[in-house]
């Protein structure tokens, strides 16, 4: 487990596995992180309630819901993945 940590401390900061997050995969990675700078703030995450009823997505395929989606920080996640991180620090903003 390799964690990208935020410099700024936050009372509600948690560690999230990147694979458990829904984020914008087409974002460009944050250049500052790729250039070796530290991540200043934790990413912001929205916590969702997962439906007990199966839902269908496009082409009739089952829709796989995730409990967490990224509100701010998709570029930081892209950079973290390129740098080999599996986890990232974040805060849940709707808790």
Characterise this structure.
With 95 residues, the chain is of the alpha/beta class. It has a single domain, classed as Conserved hypothetical protein from pyrococcus furiosus pfu- 392566-001, ParB domain (Alpha-Beta Complex), CATH 3.90.1530. Helices cover 14% and strands 29% of the residues. It contains 2 helices and 8 strands. The strands form 2 sheets. Strands 1, 2, 3, 4, 7 and 8 form a 6-stranded mixed β-sheet that branches. Strands 5-6 form a two-stranded antiparallel ribbon. The longest helix is centred in the C-terminal third of the chain and has 9 residues, at 74-82.
Topology, please?
Blueprint lengths: L2 E2 L9 E4 L3 E2 L8 H4 L8 E5 L7 E2 L5 E2 L4 E5 L1 H9 L4 E6 L3
Parallel strand pairs: 1-8, 3-7, 4-8
Antiparallel strand pairs: 2-8, 4-7, 5-6
Summarize the main sheet: 6 strands, mixed
State which percent range the strand residues make up: 25-35%
Annotation, overall tally of beta strands: 8
CATH top level assignment: Alpha Beta
State mean pLDDT (0 to 100 scale): 92
Main features:
95 residues; alpha/beta; Conserved hypothetical protein from pyrococcus furiosus pfu- 392566-001, ParB domain; 6-stranded mixed beta sheet
How would you summarize what this structure contains?
With 95 residues, the protein is of the alpha/beta class.
